[in-house]
Amino acid sequence: xxxxxxGTVGELRRSGWRPRSVKDEIRENLIAKLRSKDPxxxxxxxxxxxxxxxxxxxxxxxxxxxxxxxxxxAKSRIIRQLTELLDEAxxxxxxxxVNDDPLRPLSKYGRExxxxxxxxxxxxxxxxxxxxxxxxxxxxxxxxxxxxxxDPIRAARGGHVLADELTIHFxxxxxxxxxxxALNELPDLAxxxxxxxxxxxxxxxxxxxxxxxxxxxDLLLVFTANPEDYTARGKIITPLKDRIGAxxxxxxxxxxxxxxxxxxxxxxxxxxxxxxQVPEFIAETIERIAFLARRDKRIDQRSGVSQRMPITxxxxxxSNAERRALLCGEDEIVPRPTDLYAALPxxxxxxxxEYEGELVGSEKIARELIAQAAGETFDAWGGEAATTxxxxxxxxxxxxxxxxxxxxxxGSASLEGFGTVPALLxxxxxxxxxxxxxxxxxxxxxxxxxxxxxxxxxxxxSDAGGYGRGPRRPPSSGGGKPLFEA
Length: 486
What we know:
The chain has helices spanning 9-14, 22-36, 51-60, 75-80, 108-117, 143-146, 152-158, 172-175, 191-202, 229-232, 238-243, 256-266, 280-293, 308-328, 337-342, 344-348, 355-360, 362-380, 387-398, 411-418, 424-431, 439-455; strands at 65-68, 89-93, 123-127, 132-136, 148-150, 168-170, 179-184, 205-208, 211-214, 219-225, 246-249, 275-276, 332-333, 403-404, 459-461, 466-469. It is an alpha/beta fold. The protein folds into 2 domains: 2-249, P-loop containing nucleotide triphosphate hydrolases (Rossmann fold); 256-477, no CATH class. The strands form 6 sheets. The chain has a 5-stranded parallel β-sheet. It has a 3-stranded antiparallel β-sheet with strand order 14-16-15. A two-stranded antiparallel ribbon has the order 2-3.
């Protein structure tokens, strides 16, 4: 309990507390977690056999490290969870700006406090979250922000000369002493400030306004960077890169199933209203949109397609389904493929296009990705087995049949429309896509079948949501799926 903690240096000394470096502290707590098999990074999915073991190795080796990866790969979340490897609380000299160790004060303030009060010097306790300092690197960050600056007002009030350490207003790095200092987007940091960082890392020297200050800081330094930054906006200077112990590469989910789990975990699904039911094939289709986008040559792969895209697409699709449920008075919210088209703004805003993609346009590419993702999902659910029934569906449209679906049509009204298409409901039942107790779920399954046929270019889909006869296939197409550039 906090009230049982020593309140003075003398009490702390008599309690048997012994100083240790922050890297030793993290190492010992990490070893304890490994032995007890406690989860190290809760909520981080897909890194168990790749990123997390490398982070563990770096921490066991007491190394500073950098997470290198494209946007939306949980880099910031990982470094923020490092605080769980710190002690619950840490003793510091009360009033110290640099978290002075009560038994080994670092700053002049700390040394003078001990000299004046001895064992009666007051001790405060710092919670683990307060020992984490995070900074986003931007080109306008100054050396004063990171290391500190001379404060003339403090000098005047205290009667100090400017060269006195007591006149310094410490920056973020010294204030993170005996904790974790995290710097996001490291290449964006100006070169002269990177020089200041590696000088601190290696020698513990700081020069503020030309005055040398010896500050052997006790820190775990962690960085993040995007590979694109090395050429697009800046670079990590060689001496600093050489002093970073481990460069750990992050990545996007390696399988669709993992992506679905991550998206379901992160998306805001539970709404205050009708019950939300997301069919598995809809969640899978959303995830396949991201996977396809990460392979499409029209999309800039150096920028990447963030995992935030399927998360926001799922949220937007549910919102469109929620709007429909509220308008129709339905008691459940079931997103359908038509809701994915309503979520186009959540896709187009996250795609950085190459020149060829700019010629086509982000909205057209997004529509193609939705249809192709639906086709792959349909195939994964055994759609190719329903060959005869699919031919009957296509034949209906070939003979001039059309189907117009509005995104505000209720599940039961949509099922009435789907029932006019021969064999469509038979395909859904045969593949186990629908649910007898849910009109919305079955309607979503019917739409998936039609979207799969659109992907095969056997049907067309209008921007308004109407389905009709497919385009004429060129003789060289062989009747297969179009070759998206992937």
